[in-house]
Amino acid sequence: MFLRQVCGSRFVMAVALLGVMAGLAAGDALAQAWPVKPVRIIVPASAGGASDLVARTLAPVLAEQLGQPFIVENKPGAGGIIGTQQVAQSAPDGHTLLVTFDTIAINPFLFKNLQWDPFKDFAPVMLLTRYPQVLFVHPSLGVKNVREFVALAKKKGASLNFGSAGPAASSRLAYELFKDEAGIETLGIHYKGGGPALQDLIAGQVQVMLIQGSGTTQQTVKAGKLVALAVSSLSRSPTYPELPTIAEVYPGFETQSWVGMYAPSGTPPAVIERLGAALNKALADRTMKERFYGQGAEIAAGSPEVLTRLMKADQIKWGKIIVDKKITAD
Q: How far apart are CA 97 and CA 90, in angstroms?
């Protein structure tokens, strides 16, 4: 009886092992065949934004490497919720992908009754780019560095206005964190997008912003219409090598926006691995790096685990700010 039980257990284990091996073989075969049709990259934002530029920069390179068109589709609306939900409900076969801003991590704090979960409903593919935010001020303030601005803000208080791209935008959250760190109080004016906010900063309607820089803002600074004081990354940025960091005044201070790529949960790991290899190859190209630097971006290629860790860290950091300050998306 004992011998029969042992033999039976070994048989079950052998069958299970064969099943695992067959599954791995099937996954490898799927990865080699993928993609078998055009791949849709859903961007849950309007054309021209950071996530859209990243997707459109990478799409033709991925198409060349993988032999199928990569088609970027903009699905804006409801703070990115609509397009994100569409990907969450798509077939997990690698033919529908999501390229989105860091709001995917914090939307659960801003919107009730979301029909998707950033961790359960998505398979992270890769953190693609990071964007150090830049502390810009209007030239009329007459300040040249962070210390001078903070001293002026403490003197003028709420008579100074800070602008943001929206009531729950990363530019608003970053500046709220900076306000707390510096011990200042300035009045927030929240716009519908970074473009209108920057235009009012240039016009002097608001006096300060902590927002993602770009080639356009670099030219505006050179023209003397804005003053760039510092970057929000922990170390100096290769995109803005001439600027100090806010952390040089307030040690440990760091805020960065980022863009990542996701697939629907359940997408075969072998497909994600092949896609990740193609992305790493594309992002390692010198010409690609120069193109992203021109967009104010730093390449941050890595494993899916890097993206997951960043999302969790952002939920801790920004979730506290959102709750403590009662920030809403409205």
A: 9
Sequence-ordered list of residues with C-beta below 8 angstroms from that of 300, at least 6 positions apart, any chain: 127, 128, 129, 130, 258, 306
Burial 78-93 (b: 16+ CB within 10 A, else e): ebbbebbbbbbebebb
161-164 and 187-190 beta bridge pairing: parallel
- C-alpha distances out from residue 84 to 42, 94, 178, 308, Å: 8, 15, 29, 17
- Of 54, 9, 39, 14, the C-alpha closest to 283 is 54
Q: Is the pTM of this model over 0.70?
A: yes
Give the span between the Cα atoms of 246 and 229, in whole angstroms.
9
Q: What is the DSSP string of 279-329?
A: HHHHHT-HHHHHHHHHTT-EE----HHHHHHHHHHHHHHHHHHHHHTT---
Distance between CA atoms of residues 216 and 223, nearest Å: 11
- Going 264 to 174 to 53 to 295, the CA torsion angle's sign is negative
Spatial contact of 198 and 225, defined as CB atoms under 8 Å apart: no
Report residue 286 as tokens: 């010198």
Is residue 64 within 8 A of residue 56, CB to CB? The reply is no
Distance CA 90, CA 134 (A): 36
- Give the single-character DSSP code of 198: H
pLDDT digits (tens, 9 = 90+) for 153-184: 999 988 999 999 889 989 999 999 999 999 99
Whether the pLDDT of residue 3 is over 70: the answer is no
**pLDDT tens-place string over residues 128-149:** 999 889 999 999 999 999 999 9
- For the chain, first and last CA: distance in Å? 70
SS3 210: strand
How distant is the alpha carbon of residue 24 from its chain centre?
32
Percentage of the chain beyond pLDDT 70 is 90
